Predict the structure.
Amino acid sequence: SAVINDSASFLLHLLLLAELLVHSSGRHAHISPLCGMFGSMIPQVDRLMNSSKQLHDLTTEELLNFAAVEHRLHSLPHIQYTAAYFSSLKVNESLSQLYSYSQSFKLHVDWLKTAKENVSLPVQAAESSSIHLQQISNLINASLHQISADVPQSTPPSLPDVSTAFDALKFSVELSGRLEAFCSWSKRVLRHLQRLSHCPKH
Ligand SMILES: *[C@@H]1O[C@H](CO)[C@@H](O)[C@H](O)[C@H]1NC(C)=O
Ligand SMILES: *[C@@H]1O[C@H](CO)[C@@H](O)[C@H](O)[C@H]1NC(C)=O
Ligand SMILES: *[C@@H]1O[C@H](CO)[C@@H](O)[C@H](O)[C@H]1NC(C)=O
Ligand SMILES: *[C@@H]1O[C@H](CO)[C@@H](O)[C@H](O)[C@H]1NC(C)=O
């Protein structure tokens, strides 16, 4: 009877082990709440990309005349595009960086809006860029809270006064290009975070 008991307890162990395996694979199938956030952020970044392109209404040819214009917005974030950067991304650190960058771009876009208003240039694209940046920031803020990470504080940059329409246009061209680069980078980061968080493909 000792033999029967042993094999019964062996079977019981096997059953427990099987159950454990089912549970742990079930945990992998559990979808991170961040996935929904990433899914909402990507279309916002697409909308931001659209409005950044419209920050100036120059044609591609006209834009060539601005290629040599010196870059003056030194307070904009310096974005890293290296493979090493992307391979070492961590969810909390990347979200925190995305948040700081969105906030910084929003401060610059709001400044540009005032500058354009001052010289009577249209401000619609700056306004919608600002709204999209705020929506992106809100989503990142919610995500940071979800993973109990700190929300970084930003200090407002000191930005120049703009006195002519031509100067405002030059700043629009510069900010437009930098925003587009930020959008491409953000999308890459978000896709990477989706993979890191095992978000389902759609
Ligand atoms: C971007 O703009 C184009 C044309 O202006 C429009 O067709 C497209 O739907 C817009 N995309 C987004 C995500 O707003
Ligand atoms: C991110 O999380 C790691 C642990 O998972 C922690 O060591 C690190 O300090 C966090 N970084 C930030 C910016 O919160
Ligand atoms: C960030 O999110 C938290 C919690 O959802 C909220 O209480 C807080 O007001 C938000 N902060 C900003 C700056 O949006
Ligand atoms: C816009 O005009 C106001 C009022 O003259 C001025 O205080 C502000 O500095 C100007 N903003 C920019 C960005 O030039």
Remarks:
- The pocket of 2-acetamido-2-deoxy-beta-D-glucopyranose (ligand 2) is lined by residues 90, 92-93, 96, 149-150 (CB under 6 Å).
- The longest helix spans residues 165-196.
- Residues 30 and 198 are 9 Å apart (CA to CA).
- The radius of gyration is 24 Å.
